[in-house]
Amino acid sequence: MMVGLVIDIFLLALLVLIAVMVVRTGRLYAVIVMSGAYSLTSAAIFVNLDAVDVAFTEAAVGAGISTVLFLAAMAYIPADEKPSQNRNLLAGVICIGAGALLLFAVMDLPSLGDAMAPVHQHVAPRYLAESGSALHIPNVVTTVLASYRGFDTLGETIVVFTAGLGVLMLLAGATRTKRVKTDNRKVAAKTAKPKTNKPKSATKTARTKA
Amino acid sequence: MIEQLAGSWNYIIVVILMMTGLFMVIARANLVKKMIGLSIFQTSVFIFYISLGKMAGGTAPILDGNPDTLYSNPLPHVLILTAIVVGVATTALGLALILRINEAFGSVEEDEIIAAKASQSLARPKRPTSEAAE
Prior knowledge:
The structure holds 2 protein chains of 2 kinds.
Chain A: H1 2-24, H2 28-48, H3 52-74, H4 88-106, H5 124-135, H6 140-148, H7 150-190, H8 199-209
Helix pairs in contact in A: 1-2, 2-3, 5-6, 6-7, 7-8
Chain B: H1 2-27, H2 31-53, H3 74-105, H4 110-133
């Protein structure tokens, strides 16, 4: 327990260090790689807090897939953050105020690992006691995810499906406008008539001609 | 005093990380940095939930057949598994929106996008007059 606590304290301090570096760095590639390191460190914290399933999901999805998504998006956008209008003071005041209120609330929470905490008194003991004999799956997290709270997982699947649909629609729109633009360029190069079946490109060429 | 600090250390760090993420979302104009700020905020909430589920002397909630083994609470783990997957879905959607914004305004900086929008809405009513002049 003692070693676990020391590891916990160290990793959490490391997490704060990474977060501060992320805020201060302007080069976006460095920021993205650091956010991957942040996810991996938090996965290590989850292992230390007995949440092994969460840890490997965070390592695979948070540190893996999100980092890849960010890097893929960086292929299309500028690599550096431009200096912007200074809003640090306002943001700092808001964050310190909200943080102070949250710290005030946090002091009333049961301390880490307290067996008498309310969170350990409700349905969790029943899941731990009954799921083995009722469903014969040793991993209780799997049992709860797929069986006791199957509807949550169904809802999650719907959310992920909707997000995937949204991404596809947004990116399909992106390629369409690109195609229209290249059409325009071709049309402008040939100085030929715009295609009749594409009213959008027709109006655009008319506008550029005007 | 030190014992109390060690007991709530996780929660204090969670609040600090949460506010760092919020600060990034408010203070940085770059949309990619805003998204990363959101993911820092999100991960701090994950750590909060997992910390609540920790049981002193417990182990990972995988049954070993021994009735005396203490397990950590599996319920927060399940909730956070769902949240991680939903989080990556929202990240993907946000990045797709950023790509479209970059295509429409040629920038991912909030100030420049606002300026570009303002000049667009100023330019639009002028267009008929310029055409009339020609």
